[in-house]
Design goal:
Layout lengths: L32 E5 L1 H7 L11 H10 L8 E8 L2 E5 L3 E3 L13 E3 L1
Antiparallel strand pairs: 1-2, 2-3, 4-5
Length: 112
Amino acid sequence: MRKVILSRLRTWPGALSDGLILLCSICGERVDLDYNVEDVIWEKLISEEHRRSVVCLFCLDRLAEQENIELFDHIQNIQYAARGRTVILKPTKMFIYDNDNPDAWRIRAFQR
């Protein structure tokens, strides 16, 4: 595993979670996962009122669904800030399932 030491930097890298926990400006819930999404999608889904605020991944996904946008195609990474470290996860697979048919997820799997 390659380690990159960031403590020598004067500023924290942009778009990297620093572990600060904020509330979603739409639903008011605690945001535990940070993410990066394409700017064009952010501007399309998030109203100007909320663009400079934090929007949780669940609200973003709900808004994308309302616009018939598949968020999987536009999310660049998901970040989890743990004790003293940030883990960056890259979406690679998506499984679509039907709540009425728990076995259906096996049929509709997408991969990048």
